Amino acid sequence: MLCVPNGLILQSFAIGLMKKITDLLTYILFRAFVFVYRFIPFRVMYIFSDGMFYLLYYILRYRRDVVTTNLRNSFPEKPEQELKQIEKGFYHHLCDLLLESIKSSAVSETALRERYRIVDPEPMDSLYRQGRPVIVVTGHYNNWEWGGIVGGYYLMHRPVGFYKPLSNPYMDRYIQKTRVKGRSVLASITRTTEFFAMPMEEPAVFYMISDQSPSSPRLAYWVTFMNQDTATLHGPEKYARLYNYPVLFMDVQKLKRGKYTFGFELLAENPNTFRTGEITALFMKRLERQIREKPEYYLWSHRRWKLKKPL
Prior knowledge:
alpha/beta, 2 domains, seven-stranded mixed beta sheet, 49% helix
């Protein structure tokens, strides 16, 4: 019989207790901040954002090397001066995005509808009337978080979003509560297969942020994206072909600070007729066209190209 020394048991208990206390204090401080933050008007919030830009860009230099490298590799044809303008525009947008994300938990449905409007729901509504669940793919472009939230307000489909659970259980429950609006459902990415197989009372729309870097280069689909060999996730295409769910691209446009529109474009109506990798390539090609139109709104601070294509 294996005996565990009492000292180790007490040490393990103390570590667990300290984590719970730290998690709780973090949650309390965050909730207090959000409570105060909800009374700050948007115009004042963007003044804070301007100050945050100088802090992140000039003082902390947050991931400046990553952003610079990503931009140079993605736009080798652009002069250095233009790349610098894009870089600064990105950091301004990033600061807006961070504060808008926090603000979303304190914004009313009416206010959010005014700031995030749907352009044309017909591509989605038509599929709903046919009784077909759909998969919506998008990238880390513009304010993707608000897009997931307002789906429960605008769409006929039942929105299902996937997220990575937080290690802090108090914060995780709060995120689940505040990110679910209307008829939306929020599911852990560890339960993706389960949710796709789950019978639902009405057709669902599965939101999938599909431009992350996969965990392994050998499990990825490889495409040419922004002039570079790029590893892509296979999950959205896998489920689309497995269930023959139509795939739509969500196009989010920023009109000005805090004002967005979004719409949908059909990429694949019958995915099981496509060959392996074709749907992923269509998505990445459409995302690239969106980025090239207004590159400052893409998440350049992400280490998107950290994986190298196997020989």
